[in-house]
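Please annotate this fold before class:
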Amino acid sequence: MNTAALICRGITAEWTRTAGRGFLWTAAVPLALVLPLLVTFGIAAVAERFATVPGQLEVMSVPTTNSVYWVITLAVSVLTVTAAYAHAAAQQGRTSDLAAFLFPRSWTAALARWIFYGAVAALVTLILVALIMTVLPLRFPHVYGAVDIGSPAGIRFLWAVPLYAFIACGIGIAVGSLVRAPAAAVAVVLFWVHLAENSISLLPNGYALQAYAPFLNGVAATGQEMAFLPRFGPAGSLIYFLAVALVLFLLSAVLRAAAHRSRGRTR
């Protein structure tokens, strides 16, 4: 069977495995959809309340470039750790033996899983970005009246955030392949995204090092307003983020193949 057929088989297998009441559709996707909406609209409601009450503190208008922050921060994280968990779990117990039989080249199963979870993440974030940028200026005009889905920043969000989510899932798959323990893979992704990259600036020459933080570059590439200054510019940051994902994915594939050969010689 050729490579393309194996990848299609892997995507179909993942769709079948996650169908019904699986974790992806009953927990991960609903959480990725609901959590950013609750936080975004909750903050918007409070800000709008302060903006419309006389004598209260002045509330600054929020631009388009800062309107989908919680989608980028929360939804992408949820779906990336889901991809990492799923790939790590697939390499344990009888599931790993079946996968080795169905996919003699293990990287094809990993690539299929990247495509599957990446497509889910891209679709979820596209829905969220479009919904939030449409609703915010209509329901909260005093604070979010400047948000414009048709502006250059809004249009960039519509394609760049889903692409960022897709690439992030590839890093999740690579981590799941390298770590192989589901809970540990989730911990590594969360530590990397939410602690390590944001704490680099505390180190000596930390700001110079932070310029190479992959996820921060990915976020900057979406057009999100942030204090972090990317070294490569928006387009360069996106290419850099993709390059890191590809390198990690290839590294995980090589190490996985070497582990298979080592086990085969031992047997």
About this structure: The radius of gyration is 20 Å. Residues 106-139 form the longest helix (34 residues). Residues 3-266 form one domain. The chain has a mean pLDDT of 88.
